Structures are given as C-alpha cells and as structure tokens.
Amino acid sequence: MAAHQPVLQAEALAFLNPCTHTRLLDCTFGGGGHARAFLNAAPNTTVTAIDCDPEASSRAVVVEAQFRSRFSFHDLNFGQLDRLPEGDFDAILLDLGLSSFQLDTPERGFSFRLEGPVDMRLNPREGISAGEFLEKAPREELVRAIRDHGEEKRWWRVVETILNARGTGTLGKTASLAELIAGAVGRRPYHASRNHPATKSFQGIRIAVNRELENLQNALPLAFARLAPGGVMVVISFHSLEDRIVKRFFRRMAGKPEHSGDSLPQQLRQRKGTLLTNRPVRPGEEEVALNPRSRSARLRALQKLELEHLEG
Ligand SMILES: C[S@@+](CC[C@H](N)C(=O)[O-])C[C@H]1O[C@@H](n2cnc3c(N)ncnc32)[C@H](O)[C@@H]1O
C-alpha cells in the first residue's frame, strides 16, 4: 500500500515554526508525515501525537523507536483532548479527514472504488458501522447525513432509495451501495463530472458515522486552551463544512465577527489570538499534480497572544 503523502507540509511547518525544544501536539498522526517532518526540522523538538484509529498506533511505534523520548503517542479522539495528560504546546496541528492508509484499505469501507463492507469508522472499536447506520437510522438522521453533511442536491431521492433498500443487503457493501446511490442521483456521462455520483453521499455518511463536525467543534477550544502564549495552531481541512467551523472559531478567537450576520457588539468580543491567514492557504498546482488528494485542502493558522496581551 502506498504511504500517506502529507498535504501542505512545507506551509504547515512554516507556521508551526519548529525550533530547538519546540513542543508540537499533532492531533491527527495518520502516517506520521507531518510529525516526522517536525521532528527532523530542528534538534530537540518534541511531538505528542494522537489518533483515534487503532492502526495509527502501530505506525507510531516506528517513530517512537527512532525519536525515543522526543515522541509519544496517545490512542485518543481529538474531541476528547481534555483527557490528554500532558501540559502546554508551542504548536498544534489538526490535519483533518482520512489518511491514504484508511482510504486504500477495502475492509475499512471508505472508498466506493474498492469492494468492501460499508464500515467507514475511523475507530472501528466504537459506535456502529455505516452499513448498520443506513439500515437503522431514523429518516431525519439520514437527511442530515446526505443533505446537510454530504450537500447532495438530490438528497431526497438518495434517502428514499436507502430506506427502500433496507433489509436487502445492498447497503452493506461499498460497490452495491455506490451503485444504488448513483442510480438515485441519476448517472451523469463519465466526462461530465470528475467525481463519482456517490461521492457526496459517501462523504455525508462518513461525517455522520464519525461525528466529525461535533468532534472538530469540541477539539478547537480544547486545543486552543493547550496552546502556550505565542503558540500557533494550524488546521488543514478538506471540505467547506469543516473549513467554516475552523474559520468561525479562529475569527472568534481573534475578536472578529464570525460571519456577516454576527452582530455581537465589539465590546463583548475578547481577542485572544491573531489570524495568520486571512484567506486559507491552498496547495499549488505542483502539489495537486503530484498528490491529487491535496486538491481540496485549505490551511488556516492562528497565533495565541503573548501572555502580556492576553485579556481576562
Ligand atoms: C489526513 S490524516 C493525517 C495525516 C498525517 N498528518 C500524516 O502526515 O501522515 C487524518 C488522520 O486523523 C485521524 N483522525 C480523524 N479524526 C480524528 C479524531 N476525531 N480524533 C483523532 N484522530 C482523528 C484519522 O484517523 C487519520 O489518521
């Protein structure tokens, strides 16, 4: 299996600024690409890494063997960062979404291009598989997954089709599920779209099963609380729902209106950080050509104020 190609690595490192003894919290270890780059960038940097996928911990063992006391790994969901025992960090990274290890393993059920069980759990030790979710979830939860999280325009047809397919076995296999959804949205000519017609629905189901948006909402303030004064937080997201959550949180921390409808009086805002990216950083053409999975990536960075400037 091909290794995971870290996305926007040089850009992330430039913001995270590894210098001697800088402490990084990597909330999404994956294949350890960003973590290794940070450890190699300067002497005596340290990395505390977490990931909720049990398979990430076996990859972490290799990094630990190489960097010893400079690296530690915790098998944890970043939505529960408050359970992390260690203290403050100078740099924090969240590189959201899936690793290539997850996408390219048919048994994980993330890809409609590979035949496998419809599982889609980042942490298969918890919760229910996506197949079980599709069989049992109330209609409104399916609507939330397909319409709200997947942003599928023909969500109504997809939801009805899923409900009608219950009990037939079709919802339990990636290939038959993708075929079913493609039929519901109406097949487009191959050249009319780069994406498979089931792309959006698969994304929505995956987000729902893993509670991805809730975990991100929980993680951002918990991570910011662990950031030392002057420290920098970088988030790389892969779809607009994640990016919106990050953008709004970062703007709130910077004491700015979160969105155009945010009318909170300025005197009630508290500035705790500085936006280092007004617009998200996107990968260049060269990176996208080398690693097509990077094409939707957006990086945002926020710096916590120095202690003397932190209000309240
Ligand atoms: C895009 S990959 C990270 C790749 C990594 N930066 C690298 O260079 O190899 C995202 C990783 O985040 C993990 N992840 C996603 N959501 C998580 C969560 N809520 N808690 C902990 N880990 C999570 C996934 O299991 C996956 O391994």
Task: Give your account of this protein's structure.
- The chain is of the alpha/beta class and 312 residues long.
- It has two domains: 191 residues, Rossmann fold; 86 residues, DNA polymerase, domain 1 (Orthogonal Bundle), CATH 1.10.150.
- 39% of the residues lie in helices and 14% in strands.
- The chain has a seven-stranded mixed beta sheet, with helices on both faces.
- α2 links the parallel β1 and β2.
- α6 crosses α9, α7 packs across α8 and α10 packs parallel to α11.
- The longest helix is centred in the C-terminal third of the chain and has 15 residues.
- 43% of the residues are buried.
- It binds S-adenosylmethionine (SAM).
- The site of S-adenosylmethionine has 22 residues, from α2 and β2.
Main-sheet strand order equals 3-2-1-4-5-7-6
CATH uppermost class of the largest domain: Alpha Beta
Number of strands: 7
Question: What's the mean pLDDT score?
Answer: 94
| Hetero compounds | S-adenosylmethionine
Structural class category: alpha/beta
CATH topology of the largest domain: Rossmann fold
The percentage of residues in β strands lies in: 5-15%
- How many domains in all? 2
CATH architecture grouping of the largest domain: 3-Layer(aba) Sandwich
Largest sheet: 7 strands, mixed
Shape field = globular
Which range best describes the helical content: under 10%, 10-25%, 25-40%, 40-55%, 55-70% or over 70%?
25-40%
Alpha-carbon Rg, integer = 20 Å
* CATH level-4 homologous superfamily of the largest domain: Vaccinia Virus protein VP39
Number of helices: 12
Q: Helices and strands, in N-to-C order?
A: HEHEHEEHHHHHHHEHEHE
